[in-house]
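User: For a benchmark we're assembling, each entry needs the component sequences followed by a predicted structure for the full assembly. Here are entry 17's components. Please fill in the structure.
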Amino acid sequence: MDQAEFTVRTQGAGLYEVTSELRQWVRGQSTAQGLLTLFVRHTSCSLLIQENADPDVRTDLQGFLTRLVPRGDHPDMAWLTHVLEGPDDMPAHIRAALLPVSLSIPVAGHAPVLGTWQGIYLFEHRDAPHTRRIAAHLA
Amino acid sequence: MDQAEFTVRTQGAGLYEVTSELRQWVRGQSTAQGLLTLFVRHTSCSLLIQENADPDVRTDLQGFLTRLVPRGDHPDMAWLTHVLEGPDDMPAHIRAALLPVSLSIPVAGHAPVLGTWQGIYLFEHRDAPHTRRIAAHLA
Amino acid sequence: MDQAEFTVRTQGAGLYEVTSELRQWVRGQSTAQGLLTLFVRHTSCSLLIQENADPDVRTDLQGFLTRLVPRGDHPDMAWLTHVLEGPDDMPAHIRAALLPVSLSIPVAGHAPVLGTWQGIYLFEHRDAPHTRRIAAHLA
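Assistant: Structure for entry 17:
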């Protein structure tokens, strides 16, 4: 069994790919066949597996989330009560509730069995720069 | 490997924290380093990791879900077909589809590696009191 | 530890049950007590645990998702940029982001500890027929 922590420095809302860093770590461990679990240790960002080919897909994902859960200063969100930490904070918590906090991916031949088009992303929901930590477990 | 089942008695829709009960169980098992997996055995409630500091965050999360998936007697939901079990039933299934049924959290030093602000919740989506069961696995 | 891959042939958007196939596989493995993890190797379909009794529940789930994330040729989605692969493609990626890509279910007595009403589904989001692969891990 192996455990590690990965750090992602974010510069505003959006998707930050971590696939190659995770692949490299898995390749270096003694567990050739097993299960990789990722867990993000925050409540205002998410993990997400999504298409890694056309960047427009990530743009549109971000566009959808922004429409589904608008910022706190949008008229549609005037009912929010948790507003002291800024107009991006409570929407970030809501988006974090709707997207994964943990992911589990089988590993075979020292590699996660991702499909051809699957990339692993840290999805930041806050505006300000953050240092995000992802706990990884392989067994 | 250890397995257990936790019971949560709910009194209407909302978030019920189970963090301390789970922490205590993990602390008492022989597995010091491993992976904790939680699985809720129902289709009208969810598991959720969310902010455990300001209770307004939970109020707003509940407020958002109520707006995203209104009750069956709301005009916007007149298209629903599964209505025999009450106006809160089909919306509960939809909310359960959008939020996690399982969570996996690495464990180190006999404790889940939760971030500072992360709490683990049973999110009840039904109105009537229910006894909810969460299966836990640690290995 | 056991690993396998399951194939689901889909004929358009909707829920395809895989519970009995997975139960049968788990029953045939040497691991009597453990953890079953499922991972879908695509970015335009999902895994979902939902009610297996009244088929109207699945109809309404599909109805809700269609309203929440309309097709690309719907006026509400005119802002999409990733449109070259057809009006069902980008909405499929968005729906896949909102629903699970992986599920973890404890196993006891050679069976996943599903609740009485829980079934496991492959949720297809594309119109055209697809062959979908689910990686399974039991340990």
